[in-house]
Design goal:
Layout: E1 13-14, H1 17-25, E2 36-41, H2 49-52, E3 58-64, H3 67-76, H4 78-82, E4 86-88, H5 96-99, E5 106-110, H6 116-125, E6 132-138, H7 139-146, H8 156-164, E7 165-173, E8 178-179, E9 186-193, H9 203-215, H10 221-224, H11 236-239, H12 248-259
Parallel strand pairs: 2-3, 2-5, 3-4, 5-6
Antiparallel strand pairs: 1-8, 6-9, 7-9
Helix pairs in contact: 6-8, 9-12
């Protein structure tokens, strides 16, 4: 059965088995005494799936929105199908705690490039569940996630993910290993949950401050956050800065300063 890649779903099927094997080998998470639930997002024709299944530390389930790909997976991975590990649906719309009531510490996949940022924001919604993410994404997005303050790539997603995860850029992947080849290079990154259970600030206000700062990223904070500043001395060092100059800890400090105003 041939599965045609669908442009509307952002499908670029990985065809290089060595790259798939390398991605699967990058998953390091394990639990004592039991297999850890692992979710693969967008498995397509299962090129990565076959290697993740070889990891004896993982209990794999796959989530696929494309009906044609689901049919292929059912036919070619009978054990997954028999054990109800093939879930047809939209990852972004699923209630993951309902689907995986015992937790899901590992997420992996060749993420569709057109929704990769949305996938990461959903991971953040489940940050207390997700301990490790290993994924292939567009290289520009990978650089945005990995880079720190002082770089042009640094942005909202960088701050949010770095607040809760330690992030590694593992390797770059060329265009020619996909069908069809994308117009950009790809990269594999690994996120590991850090020890921060809760930020030492109002987390909802933190998210608001970060978003509003980067929505006007070329402007100084005195302009982008003008409605929150009240003229107190501890605000002064932030007034002439732009958002890409602030670390995660700087944003936490700024949130606390503005919270008490």
């Amino acid at each position: 059965m041939y599965v045609k890649p669908k442009k509307k779903l952002g499908q670029h099927f990985l065809k290089d088995l060595s790259v798939a094997q390398k991605i699967a080998a990058s998953i390091e998470y394990k639990e004592d005494g039991k297999k850890a639930v692992c979710i693969e997002i967008g498995p397509g024709t299962g090129v990565l799936t076959q290697f993740v299944l070889q990891n004896q530390n993982l209990d794999l389930s796959v989530i696929e929105i494309d009906e044609e790909s689901v049919e292929y997976l059912v036919a070619n991975f009978p054990d997954l199908y028999k054990n109800e590990k093939i879930i047809g649906g939209d990852f972004l719309q699923l209630d993951l705690k309902k689907e995986f009531p015992n937790g899901f510490p590992v997420v992996c996949g060749n993420f569709p490039y057109n929704i990769s940022s949305q996938i990461f924001f959903k991971v953040l919604d489940y940050k207390d569940e997700v301990k490790e993410v290993v994924c292939m994404i567009q290289r520009e997005v990978a650089q945005r996630i990995v880079n720190h303050e002082g770089t042009k790539e640094y942005g909202i997603l960088s701050v949010f993910l770095q607040a809760y995860y330690n992030i590694e850029y593992l390797f770059t992947v060329d265009e020619n290993v996909f069908n069809p080849p994308p117009k950009v290079k790809s990269a594999v990154i690994r996120l590991k949950r850090n020890n921060v259970e809760k930020l030492p600030c109002d987390e909802k206000f933190f998210r608001k401050i970060v978003k509003e700062s980067f929505n006007l990223r070329r402007k100084m904070l005195r302009n982008s956050l003008a409605q929150y500043f009240s003229g107190k001395p501890d605000e002064e060092k932030f007034l002439t800065l732009r958002p890409e100059q602030l670390s995660v800890n700087d944003f936490i400090e700024l949130t606390n300063i503005l919270t008490v105003n």
